Amino acid sequence: MHGTPDGDAWVPVECDVSIRRPNWFWSTTNEKHLMTLDQLIEVYYRSVGRGAQLLLNIPPDRTGHMAAADFARAKEFGEELRRRFGKSVAETAAVASALSCPFSRMTRATRPTT
Q1: What is the pTM of this model?
Q2: Residue 86 buriedness (CB in 10 A; 0-12 / 13-18 / 19+)
Q3: CB-count exposure of residue 73 (10 Å: 0-12, 13-18, 19+)
Q4: Exposure b/e, 32-51, CB count within 10 A at least 16 = b
Q5: Strands 14-18 and 53-57
Q6: What is the pLDDT of residues 45-60, one digit of tens each?
Q7: What is d(CA 46, CA 111) in angstroms, rounded to the nearest whole number?
Q8: CA distances from 1 to 12, 16, 33, 46, 112 (A)
Q9: Is 21 exposed, middle or buried (0-12, 13-18, 19+ CB in 10 A)?
Q10: Of the residues 20, 21, 48, 110, which has the maximum number of CB atoms within 10 A of its CB?
């Protein structure tokens, strides 16, 4: 927390977010606060997209299981990430000190809209 870039320890950047914002724990009163897919994608771009690790909290309900709505949203989120990032637009190969990154088609690096 009070480290220095020239210090002797490295700690990866971490982003902790609950799928039931703003609460960390499951409750019958916070069901309406379940993050939307668009909100989850925005969190992804602002965390993983900036080099952090995303820890998405999905709290268990009173039975110890994920609530059905949470499970469905997490599944939807995973499917959307696979749709967006599941296939590389190019393959990389390093030879000595050179890096080759051939593209099979013209590609423009833009942030997809949600």
Answers
A1: 0.70
A2: exposed
A3: buried
A4: eebbeeebbbebbeebeeee
A5: parallel
A6: 999 998 899 999 999 9
A7: 12
A8: 12, 15, 30, 20, 33
A9: middle
A10: 20
